[in-house]
Design a protein that fits this description.
It is a single chain. The protein has eight helices and eight strands, in the order βαβαβαβαβαβαβαβα. The protein has a single domain, classed as Rossmann fold, CATH 3.40.50.150. An eight-stranded mixed beta sheet has the order 1-4-3-2-5-6-8-7, sandwiched between helices. It is an alpha/beta fold. Helix content is about 30%, strand content about 20%. Strand 2, helix 2 and strand 3 form a beta-alpha-beta unit. The model has no long low-confidence stretch (mean pLDDT about 90). About 35% of the residues are buried. Bound molecules: S-adenosylmethionine. The site of S-adenosylmethionine has 21 residues, from strand 3 and helix 7.
């Protein structure tokens, strides 16, 4: 599907071309506060509220969806928030090219595309390889939040992450259906309005496990890794 690309002129938008070679977050935000990443920010409901809750954290919100990035920027600009930046980029590309290992205090993935058909499951963003690679980007003790309305996806992530070295569960169960203070995203609201449950998974990069003890894993080239090519065809 081809997206009509609307230019984004917000001061809080960073062009993806700036990513290559790494980004100087202290310069970008004007401080050295910890950095959190939201992958697939959609139209920005979640990051807006989370950044307001946590003004001492810098947030990077990314999405491959141009209009989503535009709407997220509008929300951030209107709220006058200074601790959010938005990049239109694919998650694995951005992390590999723009982030240092152990640079993220938190990673949020809310209602990622579930790819419900069995033959499309390999298109899911979060799989074993993704979780292994992600561990390298979290600081020791850094948080990983995953939420989904789709029980099958939640079950898959819960069973994968449970067995991985370097993560520990922050909850007493695989997931909960209520996470106090956790902002509600557009998709979450849609499913809540339909009376459906949201499955919240919250893990932490185990502070007792050093990065050298984590399995070496680079991000796999996935379905969306060549998103630019696909979008400009
Ligand atoms: C179902 S929507 C959920 C949006 C938002 N998180 C919410 O809960 O309302 C999934 C979003 O993830 C984005 N997305 C999918 N794969 C991505 C990837 N590999 N990197 C970055 N964004 C991605 C899509 O463009 C879409 O906006």
């Amino acid at each position: 599907m081809t997206q009509r690309i609307i230019p984004i002129h917000s001061p809080n938008f960073i062009a993806e071309s700036a990513v290559t070679g790494g980004l100087d977050w202290a310069m970008i935000f004007g401080n050295t506060n910890p950095l959190a990443l939201e992958i697939g920010c959609g139209i920005g409901h979640f990051v807006l509220e989370r950044a307001q809750q946590q003004p001492h954290i810098n947030f990077l919100a990314i999405d491959i969806y141009n209009k989503g990035c535009l709407k997220t920027c509008r929300k951030i600009d209107e709220a006058g928030l200074v601790n959010v930046r938005v990049i239109r980029s694919e998650a694995r590309y951005l992390m590999t090219n723009g982030l240092e290992p152990e640079s993220l205090t938190a990673v949020y993935i809310n209602c990622p595309d579930p790819w419900p058909k069995k033959r499309h499951r390999q298109r899911r963003l979060v799989d074993r390889e993704f979780l292994l690679a992600l561990g390298h980007y979290l600081v020791p003790g850094g948080d990983f939040y995953f939420s989904s309305d789709f029980v099958d996806y939640a079950k898959e992530v819960a069973s994968l992450i449970r067995d991985l070295t370097g993560y520990c569960n922050r909850q007493s169960d695989d997931w909960v259906h209520n996470l106090p203070d956790y902002p509600v995203s557009k998709y979450m609201q849609r499913f809540l309005d339909l009376g459906q449950n949201i499955y919240y998974i919250h893990y932490q990069r185990d502070p007792a496990v050093s990065r050298s003890e984590l399995s070496t894993q680079e991000f796999q080239r996935g379905f969306r890794a060549d998103w630019k090519q696909a979008l400009h065809d």
